[in-house]
Amino acid sequence: MAWLFVVRSRAPAQGLTEYGLVLVLIAITAVGILTLTGRTLSQVWYQNLVERMP
User: Fold this and answer.
1) What pLDDT sits at residue 38?
2) pLDDT tens digit string along 15-53?
3) Long-range contacts (CB closer than 8 Å, 24 or more residues apart) made by 31-34
4) pLDDT band for position 1 (cuts 50, 70, 90)
5) SS3 1
6) CA distances (Å), 32 to each of 4, 10, 17, 28, in order?
7) pLDDT of residue 21
8) Which UniProt keywords apply (predicted)?
9) Taking the chain, what is the end-to-end CA distance rounded to the nearest angstrom?
10) In sequence order, which ranges of the chain are alpha helices (DSSP H)?
């Protein structure tokens, strides 16, 4: 019966660990996407700004 208590007490920590890993994966993906498209987006914004100047 003691093993059931040990297994059950680890469950919340495991859930928090999984949520943490998911958040890290999302953050890495977001940084990767911004790195790949960052220059292109900045060029689009800059070109748009230059075209609107009098």
Assistant:
1) 81
2) 888 999 999 999 999 999 988 888 888 888 889 888 998
3) none
4) low
5) coil
6) 42, 33, 23, 6
7) 95
8) Membrane, Transmembrane, Transmembrane helix
9) 79
10) 2-52
Q: Can you tell me the distance from the alpha carbon of 29 to that of 11, in angstroms, rounded to the nearest whole number? A: 27
Task: Show me where the domains of the chain are located.
Answer: 1-54
Q: What global pTM score does this model have? A: 0.56
Q: What is the mean pLDDT of residues 9-19?
A: 76
Structure tokens at 5: 């208590």
Q: Tokens for 38, please give them.
A: 């960052």
The residue whose two tokens read 């009098």 is: 54
> Tokens 């498209």 label which residue?
37
